[in-house]
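Internal tracking record. Fields below are filled automatically when a chain is submitted to the structure queue. Please do not edit lines marked as system-generated. If the sequence contains nonstandard residues, flag them in the REMARKS field before resubmitting.
Queue: standard
Priority: normal
Entity type: single polypeptide chain
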Amino acid sequence: GVTLVLIDNVSGPLGTPSLDAVLTATEWQDRVLGVSQVVRLPLAVTWFATGNNITLVGDTSRRCLHIRIETPEESPELRTGFRHDPLLPWVREHRPEIVRAVLTVLRGYVVAGRPDQRLPAWGSFDGWSGLVRNSLVWAGLPDPGETRVELQAEADDTTSALADLVAGWEEVAERFSGRCTVAQVLAALEEDYEKKLYPRLRAAFDQLAPSSGGQPPNARRIGNAIKRYRGRVVDGKALVKAGERGERGNHWHVKSVPASVPPGKRAAAVAPVAGPSLDPDSSSDVVRPGSAKAPGPVKADVPPDAGEAAAARGWKVRL
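SYSTEM-GENERATED OUTPUT FOLLOWS
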């Protein structure tokens, strides 16, 4: 079946529960159209999406590896002077060399004993992170996982709205000894006729619990939004329930949550361990994001000119 899927030229928000599911699942179960039959099939697809300043929705951002291409040119399509021009024919011609170089890095990391690079966890993609991501950092390249920090900060409207909700709720709750109900919050907003107070909370309600026709925020929608996102940590804080339900509903307050690993940071990397010669008769497991292990090992012959990285690390190449 298809192993690569491209969602090209995304112009609106990207992210749905179904897309989130396929990005992390290794199997997919659904009913066959036209018959009463349910099938379960392996899901080994790599997904790509392209667009200008894509906005991601909900939990989709944590499932994405961000690649951003920037240019100072007003008309980048007219640019000339590339190192390899045209690029695609060059890539097709040199594909064996590129693949060998990639496999050399992976094989070298495995031969070295797969030393732990102490990277922040990437939940749901542990297999890919443990091999591909760690091998890149071990070879001296930047951690590709750090791109998620910028992506989540700039592209995820939901995360931005949650940050506004937590900060705004904390501001209003100061009037009520640090904890308040949805009804108390709405009353505080209604008292501010000129809408000069609590701008972040108003912005959060507009995003997470929008009302139609310019109507005031709906208490039920706000309550459902809070229940949906309760306990979600943003900027080291989370909105959580305070005590038992009262006569006027649940009381909510903002709680500080200490982070175990600062966002975008990692501990000092373990120095690579010198390993034995790269044996082309050996094999290493190559995994894809979201899976524990790809079906079957990949074997690679290491060429004499496997790349500067191998020589720089002092690897012994045996053919």
